[in-house]
Structure formats: C-alpha cells, structure tokens
Design a protein that fits this description.
2 domains; binds adenosine-5'-diphosphate; Rossmann fold; alpha+beta; six-stranded mixed sheet; 21 strands; six-stranded antiparallel sheet
C-alpha cells in the first residue's frame, strides 16, 4: 500500500488551456480520497495522471514515495475501475478475475486462492461461470471491483464507478464500498461529479474547479467551513443561499434592512467592504436568530420537510428547508428565522474567499 502525492501537477491538452493547473495533494496511505467537481473541472485528467494514462505537462506524481512521473501505467502497481467497467466480454467472471494474475505468471494455486477470497468477499460465488452479458449492472460493477482487489495493488483509482447504477443501487453500493475500504484499507482515489457521493464516501474530499483544487479536507470541514463561495455553493443540498451586501464591524448589512452578526472573522480578512452572506436552507427555522419575511413563490413537499422558495426582499431569492408545511401555498408571507451561528461570509465573486462566520 502507498501514499499518493501530486506535486504541482499540470496538464494541457492544447497550449495555454490547462485541464489541470498546478495541483498539489498529499493522500496518505490507506486514505479514501474523493475528487469532486462539476463536469470539465479536471477530475478525470487528474486521475489519469496518477494512473499514468496521461503524461504530466509539469510537476511530479509520487506513489509510495517513489517518483513515477515517467513510469508507464503497468509498472505503477495501481488498479483502476472505470465507469463502463471494461470487463472482457468473452471471458467468464472467474477468468475476468484471474486474468491480471495469469498475465503476471502468478502460480495457479495462488490465483485460485486469491480469486476465491475476492469472490467470497464480494458475493460473486454463484456467478463465477457467467459471462458479463449475463450479469446485472450491479454485478458487473462488483466484478470490476473484484478484478482490482485481486491484484492487491498499492492503490485503487475509481473513475465514476457508481454512475451506471440506478439511484437505489448507487446508495447500497456506496455502503459496500465503504465497508470494503474499512477491511482492505487500500489507498483509494475516487472521482465523481456527485457531491453527496463524495461526502458519504470520502475521508478526504477534494473539491475541484477550473483545473484547480478549491479545498481539500475531511467532508465535515468542507461542509462546515467552506474555503470559498464556490465550495460553499457546490457542497450541500439544496445549495447554499447567497446574498450580496456589505460588512462592517462584524455585522453584515443586506437588502431590506437585513442585519446579521458575523462571528469568527477569518485571519487577514478586511473588516469593512462589499461581502456576500451565505447560509444553507437548513439554517432557517421558526425560532431564534434573525427574523426574515419570506414571500413564498413555490413549495416542494418532501415528506418530513418542505423546501420553500421565495424572496426576502425584491429580487432577493432564497430557499428554506423547513419542517413539513402541507398547507403552505405560493403567495403566502412567512415569518422565519435565520440562525446567525450558521452563516458564512465571503468576499464578492464566484470564488470569493471565506471572510468569517460558522464555526471558529
Ligand atoms: P472532468 O473529469 O472533471 O469532467 P476532464 O478531466 O475530463 O474533466 O476534462 C478537463 C478538461 O480537459 C475539459 O475541458 C476537457 O474538455 C479537456 N479534455 C479532457 N480530455 C481531453 C483530451 N483527451 N483532449 C483534449 N481535451 C481534453
């Protein structure tokens, strides 16, 4: 097993258009790291640079402390699982699982033992003689995982491994992946566009945008202390609300006479100036905090809760996740409260840095 280090790695497919623009990351041995971000942000390219399927334009990749920047993929001792699983269609499950070991001239009894152990771990016993076409999507996904596990590599690289599964199966497979990782503790880099998948699986979550790391850290830290407005808006459902205004003396002032005290000013943040208030729909409720009047535009009933969209001042729209409001209808005027201990303050702009708020 091994750590993975990216040292100022960059990749341009065309001159002057970096897909990955100087990424540095330290993924410790045994860590489950998830790269997450919108389509085109450079996640897959980053993974392919670790795998050696793409050549770095600049920087270094280290696996288990060894510089592998110029080492071909087959010699990097990593195993990749792709979105489409890439199983050999003419081979049985058993042959698919054994293939890499055979190629490496592993002794037959060892192959049988390792394949048997992985088949049992993943519940593939009954399926060993089937061809991939006779398997369900979830079963194929398991064979693809099994094929990676059986090689006992230094690291697993997963590229959107759950995106071909239906919603329910995706959630149950997420749980399986997690418990598998608890047992194997193999360093893993997992790429997804799905922030919920990232939050649920990752011990380390790396939020990417425009070929750069916007924030890397444990999922709760990324959720509770987003480093900038991009991360704040990307992580969490429904997305965080943002309101443009002005901050001075630890108070945010916004449209409609809104005044919200801001705790924990970030080191080095200016005390006064244009600023953006951020708060999650879950930070709104019935009691405590700052009073707001919400002119209701639409209500989405979710069972236990209702997502209420509306305006707190002309042209200033927000979403509130409130306890279920079966009788609430568009046009109503609703008194709600904003929990001021759960607000965030950012500098203006789509990637404005965190200025304060939230937990210390
Ligand atoms: P993601 O996985 O986050 O969706 P990618 O790493 O696939 O993003 O792509 C990052 C950027 O690089 C995109 O702008 C994409 O169009 C570009 N790109 C990816 N692969 C290639 C390629 N083989 N040739 C040229 N451009 C590419």
């Amino acid at each position: 097993m091994g750590s993975i280090t990216l040292d100022n790695v960059s990749k341009s497919y065309a001159p002057g258009q970096p897909a990955v623009a100087g990424i540095s990351l330290d993924i410790p041995t045994g860590c489950y790291c998830v790269l997450v971000g919108p389509s085109g942000c450079g996640k897959s390219t980053t993974l392919r640079l670790v795998a050696g399927l793409e050549e770095c334009t600049g920087g270094r990749v280290l696996i288990a402390g060894q510089d592998v920047t110029r080492v071909p993929p087959k010699d990097r001792d990593i195993a990749m699982v792709f979105q489409n699983y890439a199983l050999y269609p003419h081979m049985s499950v058993r042959q698919n699982l054994s293939f890499a070991l055979k190629m490496r001239k592993t002794p037959r009894p060892d192959i049988a033992r390792r394949v048997g152990a992985v088949a049992e771990m993943l519940g593939l016993g009954e399926l060993m003689d089937r061809k991939p076409r006779a398997l369900s999507g979830g079963q194929r996904q398991r064979v693809a995982l099994g094929r990676a596990i059986v090689r006992e590599p230094k690291a697993f690289l997963f590229d959107e491994p759950l995106s071909n599964l239906d919603a329910r199966l995706r959630v149950s497979t997420r749980v399986e992946l997690k418990s598998l990782h608890q047992r194997l503790r193999t360093t893993t880099v997992h790429v997804t566009h799905d922030q919920e998948e990232a939050m649920s699986l990752g011990e380390m979550v790396v939020v990417m945008e425009a070929g750069q790391v916007q924030q890397a850290g444990p999922p709760l830290e990324v959720y509770q202390r987003p480093a900038n407005r991009f991360v704040a808006g990307f992580v969490g459902t429904p997305p965080m609300n943002f309101i443009d205004g002005h901050a001075s003396d630890g108070v945010f002032e916004g449209p409609g006479g809104l005044r919200v005290p801001i705790a924990h000013r970030s080191a080095g943040a200016p005390g006064t100036g244009a600023a953006v208030l951020g708060f999650r729909p879950q930070a709104l409720g019935d009691a405590g905090g700052v009073p707001l009047t919400l002119g209701v535009r639409s209500v989405e009933h979710l069972g236990e809760s209702s997502d209420v969209a509306g305006e707190i001042a002309p042209g200033v729209g927000i979403v509130a996740r409130l306890s279920a409001r079966p009788a609430l209808a568009p046009g109503a005027s609703l008194a709600i409260r904003l929990d001021a201990t759960r607000v965030h303050l950012f500098a203006p702009g789509p990637r404005g840095a965190r200025l304060g708020g939230g937990a210390p």
